[in-house]
Amino acid sequence: MWIEIVNVSRLEKFKGFDKAFSQNVQHYRSYFENANAHAFPLDLEFDTALNAFQKLLIVRCIRPDRFMLGTSGFVAQSLGQRFVEPPAFDLSACYAESSVVSPLVFVLSSGADPMADLAKFAAESKMAKRFDQVSLGQGQGPKATNLIKIAMETGMWVCLQNCHLAESWMPKLDVLVEQIDPDTVHRDFRLWLTSMPSPAFPVAILQNGVKMTLEPPKGLKSNLVRSYQRLSDEYIDESKDPVAHRKLLFSICLFHAVIQDRRKFGPLGWNIPYDFTDGDLSMCQRQIKMMIDDYDVIPFKVIRVLCGEINYGGRVTDDKDRRLINNLLDNFVTENVVGEDYCWSPSGAYQMPMAKNREETVAHIMQMPGVPHPEIFGLHENADITCDQNETYALFETVLSLQPRVVGGAGLSREAVIELAATDIFEKIPEPFDIDVVTHKYPTTYGQSMNTVLTQECIRYSALLEVILDTLKEALKALKGLVVMSPELEQVTDAIFDNRVPEMWTSKAYPSLKPLSSWVIDLLERLTFIDQWIENGPPAVYWISGLFFPQARIFAFPKSEHCLPPLFQRTTRDVCSVASTRDVCSIASTRDVCSSCQYW
């Protein structure tokens, strides 16, 4: 963070910020520890000198996990709140722009299913009885062709689902759409298409059609609002027990939003990311209504099994994820939900609404926190930090990818900047290690187990060095026009220009989040450590984090206690404090020393 602060202090408006930071350490400690750091004031000098956008740079330096919240606040303040809230999906507006010769194309994304919205819109447009659909796949092309011809004569709506699965039939669809004559086709005819992004999809249909994308709503509030847009007061009240039905509907919609939004936490949310769809929610809603109407006492256990093991659980393949979803469901489908003032979070931010209709329920949802608290997901507050940092860095990568690749003005050109940086790295990077020399000098023996570690480290680092040197050599030639600039070399040069580690290097390298300049310095320090080990023998202190794959290393020490470093010297007959007997030797028993290899 201090490096970031020093760098930002070089900008004109931030002159002296590093000094102000060092003079107000306690104030910035509070800034760093505050949950709303993006809204926390700076010191007296810079809080008034910087505008809202410039303060975002300070947030980026000290609390990058709060940068996205600061960005949303800046956009809302500058442009308006509607620019940070996703608009509701409006099929009627899309339909108004269509015609008999302009198909309506849904570009699908994982976890989103537009069929429920389309069926509802067909019912509202009084076209439900004249609406038919075909899920494309093997052998469905002739059926779709006949249905389109009948629909053009009778004025039906036809929906062809999953066009990306029928690549061989797409040219036929292109011809059918091209031959549509607006003078002879029924004016009510409409062709609806759904497809994942696919190179086989006809370009002419994309150019002439009305394109829509339906992505899973981002955020708990957006997900809840969208779920309630599909419900009506008639559906909610059409039950034997409308009050219990209304409460269980809200609870299952909140559960759906929770398991959808948990994906943003990565491995903390789910071991495997699942694409839960609106169809899973719709089926749960129908089953809840059926259980309320058909039984005198609501069978909550049956509903939990149907939802957790069949509807949603049918997609869950990991046993730990299955246990998680069932435990989460215990809080959302329970007798207490239909009671009074039920709350899903200790803070009280997520309570059961005391609403009597859909409009009041949506109003209650809009009053929920804009940024969901981790407690509603069953997670600790620290879970937000990693998630928010990943979103921030993803935003920065997007901004970098949109940066102009041509440098204007009197400064160095883009090619010159890349060439200088690549040449500097190429001159600093040493040649790969001579594995034969290392193996000969440090053979694998029982007397020194770390020789094997050294050899393995040299092999891994040599593979990385070979990739770096080869790509830099070719990239420098490509910049001079001596060789063709391939897509791989272009990715390398773009990464160097953006101060990022190229993907070709990271695939062979150790895990690191450093930018390219810091990454190169860190790599040279690691190589120096290995070089000194080779030249001067095993070091007195091992730089554990400097090893390529430290988590795979098991350290064993000689039996003689005078050979042990002070950290591992023990006064009792026991194993060292950081290793157990089984971790060190598979043939050792409960004794502290293995009788075969004489190691701790």
Describe it.
This protein is mainly alpha-helical and 600 residues long. Helices cover 49% and strands 4% of the residues. The chain is built from 26 helices and 5 strands. The protein has helices at 2-8, 17-23, 25-33, 44-49, 52-62, 67-78, 91-96, 115-124, 141-154, 170-178, 203-208, 220-229, 233-237, 242-261, 278-294, 300-311, 319-329, 358-366, 383-401, 414-428, 435-441, 450-479, 487-497, 503-506, 516-536, 581-584, and strands at 104-107, 131-135, 157-161, 190-195, 210-213. Strand 3, helix 10 and strand 4 (190-195) form a beta-alpha-beta unit. Residues 556-600 have low confidence and may be disordered.
Key terms:
five-stranded parallel β-sheet, 600 residues, disordered C terminus, 49% helix, mainly alpha, single chain
Main structural class: mainly alpha
| Number of discrete helical segments | 26
Strand order of the largest sheet: 2-3-4-1-5
Measured distance between first and last alpha carbons: 41 Å
Tell me the fraction of residues in β-strands, as a range: under 5%
Give the total of beta strands. Answer: 5
What is the share of helical residues? 40-55%
Characterize the biggest β-sheet. Answer: 5 strands, parallel
Low-confidence stretches: 556-600
Mean pLDDT: 83
Global shape: globular
Task: Tell me the Rg in angstroms.
Answer: 31 Å
Oligomeric category:
single chain
